[in-house]
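Structure tokens please, single chain.
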Amino acid sequence: MTRAGFAAIIGAPNAGKSTLANRLVGAKVSIVTQKVQTTRFPVRGVAMEGESQIVLVDTPGIFRPRRRLDRAMIRAAWGGAEDADAVVHLVDAEAELAAARPGAKAADRRAAEDVAAIVEGLKRAGRPAILALNKVDRVKPADLLALTERLHGAGVYSEVFMISALNGSGVADLKTRLAALMPEGPWLYPADQTADLPARLLAAEITREKLYLRVHEELPYAASVETTAFEEKPDGSARIEQTLYVEREGQRPILIGKGGRTLKWIGEAARKELAEILDRPVHLFLTVKVKAGWAEERGLYRDLGLDFDV
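Here you go.
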């Protein structure tokens, strides 16, 4: 009997949600960078386990909102959890333990606050979740046991898995459990499909990942990527045109770089990965434009499947 359903991965920013989704699927379906909050909308990946199909909803990180875009992303994250057949709360065990120590970094303290907020949200929702402690290879077993007991005592988790999304430790067991939780029914996607992200949106996400990898220090969250043209050529290749938006004129030279080197690096890295994912030659053309207030445009939210009026 075949099974198919949805499993939502929720958690604080930078907990490793995208890395876990990619590991479960066995292919890259969500961008991964060292900056927190790079997933702006739910990305579905399709994981197969025996006769079960698990459609993964890789949600934006849940954190304290400051802007309209923040609020829309958090609404999308909780919406993904409410609609799923199974919910996995991914917690960065290393950050959670570090936050409790004297002199903890601000980032670790924020992560712990976000985890506490998610626990309260799960209590209000009244639905059990699977607790997945991530990065367990970086913490002492005794500390991990104490952390497990403390979090499980919140009363919102049905079970606990200890994993490393990066090296794959424990992920197979989690995948098996998710497969068993999927309801009986026909598969929702072909067995060889790994994601339902439109090609134009996927292309923009890949380029945005490379952008943040290159200028994450100088340009924190001030840039967006839009695929303005995606053309299938007669020779089987793809011609992709993209516009990279920044909010202020002073940010434009940062993105372009001296002699255009930064933009060239971003383009070459994105083109190479897109060619691998799309399995065809890719011709990628990038343009940088200044667009003040791009994060407040209703059309952007519609394209990303987010609620502008949240």
